[in-house]
Amino acid sequence: MSDLFSDQQTLKQVVAPGITLLKRYASTTELMPLIQQIKTQSPLRHMGTSMGHNMRVSSTNCGNLGGYSDDLGYRYLKNDPLTQQAWPSMPSAFKHLAINAAMEAGILNFNPDSCLINHYPIGISMGSHQDKEERDFSWPIVSVSMGLSAVFQIFGKTRSGVELEILLEDGDVLILAGPARLYYHGVKPVKADLMQPNLTDRYNMTFRQAR
Ligand code: SIN
Ligand code: FE2
Q1: Stated pTM of the model
Q2: Which 3 state secondary structure label does DSSP give 13?
Q3: In a domain? residue 6
Q4: Number of neighbouring beta carbons within 10 Å of residue 136
Q5: Which residues are placed with Cβ below 5 angstroms of ligand 2, an ion?
Q6: In a domain, 55, yes or no
Q7: Nearest ligand, CA of residue 182?
Q8: Mean pLDDT for all residues in the chain
Q9: Which is the closest atom of ligand 1 to the Cα of 185?
Q10: How many domains does the chain have?
């Protein structure tokens, strides 16, 4: 039995079919130093898009495969094109977090091989897109938010027309699965927090089973 009055308790919300939110699920004080380490091996960089733009977020990866995008489009690569080395390995704390979060959403045997790390300074957003380059869409996307809050937008089956907005705070984990797995989604510009003026960044990790 979980203690109803414990601040450790996870608040699980099934926001819509296939969309599960675990409030304050991840301990970001444990995760952030690991991200700093990954950044020293494979630095954050602004990836390109097939449209010839650069992404507003900067990104890196850990795991056997890294999500990478440039003028050839989005795909999974074994090596970081910047360092020409394998992406940093996925820390076991990351992997366990993703597996346990998937389990909370009712998905057993999730075995993530890829973790994309995105960095959002204040003012930076992410446009509407689908995550659709993975082999098997029966595996979820497990998304962990750190630092400044953001408003996650669900557009649904089409690129535009906001259907749902979800506030993602530090430590929140969002799972997109089943009917929501291929929904278009994006992130509104990250805002400063007047109560925490020293906080200037948001990080997000998305875990996938790409292959
Ligand atoms: C993404 O969809 O790739 C990022 C999600 C987020 O930053 O919350
Ligand atoms: Fe995405």
Answers
A1: 0.95
A2: strand
A3: no
A4: 8
A5: 131
A6: yes
A7: 2
A8: 95
A9: 2
A10: 1
Q: Cα(69) to centroid of ligand 1, in Å?
A: 15
Amino acid at 167: L
Q: Is residue 2 part of a domain?
A: no
Count how many residues are written for the chain.
211
- Does the pLDDT of residue 66 top 70, yes or no? yes
Neighbours of 109 (CB within 10 A): 9
CB 210 within 8 A of CB 65: yes
**Inter-axis angle of helices 92-104 and 28-41, nearest 10:** 130
- The whole domain housing 88 covers 11-208
What CATH number corresponds to the domain at position 135? 2.60.120.590
Task: Give the contacts of 209 (CB within 8 A, at least 6 positions apart).
Answer: 110, 111, 112, 113, 114, 134, 136, 139
Task: Give domain status of residue 1, yes or no.
Answer: no
At 15 the three-state DSSP class reads strand
**C-alpha 169 – ligand 1 centre gap (Å):** 13
**Whole-number pLDDT of residue 9:** 65
